Structures are given as structure tokens and as C-alpha cells.
User: Fold these one by one.
Assistant:
Number 1:
Amino acid sequence: MDERLKEIRKALNLTQEEFGKKLGVSRGVIVNMELHRAEIKPLFIEHLCSIFNVNEDWLYSGTGDMFIVNDQNTKEAVRLFRQLTPDFQQYALSQIRGLLEMQNKAAFSAAIHKSDEDMEAANDIDAEVNSYRHELEAEENAKTLSALQNTDKSIG
């Protein structure tokens, strides 16, 4: 079972620390379980299966799928994928990776665009603040000049 625990972590692409954090245990606990230095308790197994939708039968015996698929789209994708030959499975995976890369680039581009819009808005606000500051300075200068002129009139 310790090897299957490591397989789950690797399939989820998590480090021992990240895996432990999501399960509420330390990295050391995960290391010890993976190296069979610590017993994997039933309560931990239940928690692991609940958090990551792990198939408990697979975890205990290695039979069945590693994960329990809950949503219809994923179930259909897995069903269709299994019907493909290994060559077409590899091709499908490369296409999915390409789609994911496109999605990530689009999200990054949108974030940059949003950042540019935020920067423009901030610049507009800065311009308004500077304009208002100049108006206040002009009013203050006018008051000071008026006060100086009144002082000169009263002295003269």
C-alpha cells in the first residue's frame, strides 16, 4: 500500500510537503508512510480517499482505477480514451496538453490585459490627484498673495 500511496501523490503531481498539507499531516509523516516506516491507519485511508476521490479498493489491493470519477464529462472522456489504441491515446494526450497550454496562455494574456487596464486606471487617478493638488496650491498661493497685498496696504 505504501507504493500506491506514492503513486497517488505522483499522479496528483504533488510534493510530499504539498500532499501532506492537503491531508493535514507533515511531510515527515508522508515520507515515513511511503517508506513503510509508519503504518497507514484506516482513518487516514478514509480521509485520503475522501479528499482525492481515491478508489479504496485500488489503494488496498491495486485492483480497479486509482481514482473514482464523479462527473459525467470525465467519465465519458475516460470511457472514450480507453477505447483508443495506445498510439491514439498518446495523440489524445498530446492534444489535451496542447489545449491546456492554450488555456494557460489565454489566461495569462487576459491577466496581463487586465493589469494594463488597472495601470491605466491608476494613472488616470494619479492625474486627477495631481490636477486637484495643483488647484489647491493655486488657491493657497492666491490666498497668500492676497494676504501679502493686504499687509502692504495696511503698512503703506
Number 2:
Amino acid sequence: MKKYLIAISMFFVSLAALAYGEAGQWSSGWAQGVSEYAAVVSRGNEFYMACQSDKGVYMSVKVNGKEYGPDAKKGFNIEVNGKVLERPYVTDNMVGEQNFNYLLQQIQKGKQLKVITADGQTLVLPTKNEAKAIPKRNDCHSGF
């Protein structure tokens, strides 16, 4: 009986670990009409993006377990190729749309991304599988 409890516990722990993908790389998935993309550095340090064909994009990031983004009290920026994209999850205007499209292109090229939170925390995202995670044809588009 003890073996079964351990096996069931390990199963649920592994499901939780896979929720955002494997540490050190990008991953993608699809469920209920939503394409999901994640870059996991380590537990509590991850970038998440969700795209729906009939809606805009949603992004959030966790740094040391603290969440940043549109649903959190503090936002974040992303630096790519020396260019800082301010609040890249705000895509309902022309500048936001341009920044989001630029970000997607850089992800598809496998470029290094660095998240900078409103309170100065930084998180360098992994590049492993980055270019493969978000294909050229995808459900991601701005809300503009």
C-alpha cells in the first residue's frame, strides 16, 4: 500500500513540474483553444505567454516566486538585442503591437531575452528550444 501512495504522489508531483515545462529551456503546448509558451529558468523563475486566435496575448513572469505582469501589482519589460520593450504584454496600441511583433521575431530567431521587473529584478531566459517553441505560423497576435 505504501508503494502505491508513493507512486501516486510522485505522479502528481511530476504533473506539477511539467505545468510550465522543463528547467533551462522553452516549451510549448496547446489546450482548450489556447497556445501556451514557457521559458523556465528554475522553479519560481519562469516566463509564460498564452495566445488565442480570437484574442490578444497574455504574458506573465515569475522571478524568485513573485509574479509580474498584467494581473500583478508590478509589471515587467523585456530586453532583446539591447532594445528594451516596455510592458510587452500591453498590445492594444500601435507601439505595443510593433513591440510584440518584434519580440516574436526575436524569439523565433533564438535571441537572448532578459526580463527586467518594475522593482529591478532581472531574469535571463534560456535560449534552448526557443526558436522551435513558437513557430512562424501561430495564434499569437496583438490586441490592436
Number 3:
Amino acid sequence: MFRFVLLFAVAMGLAGSPASAASEVAANPNIARVWFLWPSDLAPSYDTGATPTIYVNGRPLAVIRGGTAFYRDFPAGTYGLSIDAYGTETGQVETVRLMPGTQTFLQVQYDRTWEHGYVGGRGMTAFSFFITPMSAQLAAAYLPTMTNLGPR
């Protein structure tokens, strides 16, 4: 199964350099690659100028802009990922368990808080940023349309 996912990722161009990404993940069986995507059609229809910071276990990882993607390699383990709110503070943390030699895809969304099970806010303050899982198939469709920032 892993080889299929890895070959699928290479075939779909999910890495800055397909050969290097596949070999990097396969060559180091203790790491897991996490892709962070903010597809432009999931960004607000108006330009907020927002550049939210993504956090891993409460520590800043990187800033992301709409229409961009980047990746980071992590040791296998369990991580809590969050993002600046830019609206109603929800305290949302996406917990991911990373298995060695795998790739995980996470998307940034700017949504109404109630769509993610949070109460609060009115008008523009009823929105917040969220990090949610994305399937490899959906990521494969989005990545060619985005600016790939490479490793962060």
C-alpha cells in the first residue's frame, strides 16, 4: 500500500522534484512528510491580506498565503497542529499521528466557526482559520494549480 501511495504521489507531482521527494521519504523510514495547502478557492473571495501562522505543538512552523503549498518532514509521532484565528478564537487543534514513510496532506480553510462545531461571533467575526485533513487524491488535483514553496 505504501509503495502505491508513494508512486501515486510521484506520478501526480506532489513534490518540488518528484524523484527527490519520493526518494527522501523512502530513504528515511523514520520520517513522515506533511504537506500544508491553502487552495485559492478555499481562501476568502475578497483579499484579506491574511498570512496566518501554522503551529506545531504550540510552536510556530511557517506562514502561509492563499494559493500556496509547502511541506515539512517530521519524525514519526503524534502532533497537534493549529493556525492563527483571524476571527473568532476557537482553540482548534488538529491532532495527527504520523507514521514513518508516509505523506499527510492538511488544508487551510477560512470558514464559519459553526461549520466546524464552534459557537461565537457575528458577521465577519463568525469566521476563523482551520487546519483540516485533505485526501491524497484531492491534494493531487490542487497542487498543480498552486505555488509550491517547497520545504519550510
Number 4:
Amino acid sequence: MNDVWVDVAGPADFSDVRALLEMWKPGQRVTPRRPADLATGRSLFLLARLSNGAPVGLVEGHHDWTNWELLADWGHLTDADRGSYLLSLFVDPSVRSDQVGTALVDAFVAEAVGAGSPLVVVIPDAEPFSYERRLSFFRRCDFIPLAVTVPQPTWIWGRPLG
């Protein structure tokens, strides 16, 4: 596999971000809707490219925990446990490997550290791959179970940054 590099997506990357989102969710309404959304939106998009410049993956997330904290039963967690939310992770199936996914997660973690977050959380879902496969990937990226979401019994996984 070629080397992978990851950078924050800006307005100039709009067509590449949209192409990857359309590959991931064909026919669905996806954001960002216009190039300016990549520069001004609350969400942070990170774009992975091969050494030849081809876009092969992306992460969407944010450093505002007030959104995801409503999904869980937080009985044992404190404010120090709240942090950044890795909302979406997608890698082009033609180059799918842990190298691309791991590079994207590591880049998001670095952004979270820079934003002062003590934790990165993710809710591994079953789409488009098995839940077990996603859990295995996030375990390899040092995520651990933190809390159960409500009403469905899905675990929120976190990676402490301290």
C-alpha cells in the first residue's frame, strides 16, 4: 500500500469529501453541502490521501461533547470523561486496510489533544460492516467501553487522552 497522509479538509477539498460521502452513502443527503461548510461548520472533517493524492478516507467529528452525552447512561462518568466525538469513519473499500483507518483515527486523536479534550468517544455501528469488526478495529486503536447508550443497548467506546 502507498503511504497515507491525513489533513484537515478545507473548502478546496469539498469535491473529494463529497465523492467519498457519496461512495459511502449513495443517494443519501449528506453534509457538507457547500465548500464553505468545511471552513465554518462545527464538524471537523479529516481527509486521508495516498501518496499520489487520491482521496481514500475521511473522518467527521467534533470537540463538543454536549451532543453525544445525551445518548448514554452516565452514572459513573464525570465531566473529566467528556471530550471529542468521532462521528463517522469511512475508508474507500478498494484500499480498505487498518493503515488508512488507523491513520484517520490517530489524526482525529491529535486534533482532540490540540483542542484540549481529555477523551475521544465513538459509537461503533453495524453499518456497513459487522459490529464485531468495528469493535475489533477500535480496540486496536486503544478504545475501551465507557457507557451504554439509551434506549438501544449499544456501548459508547472511548480513548482516554491523558
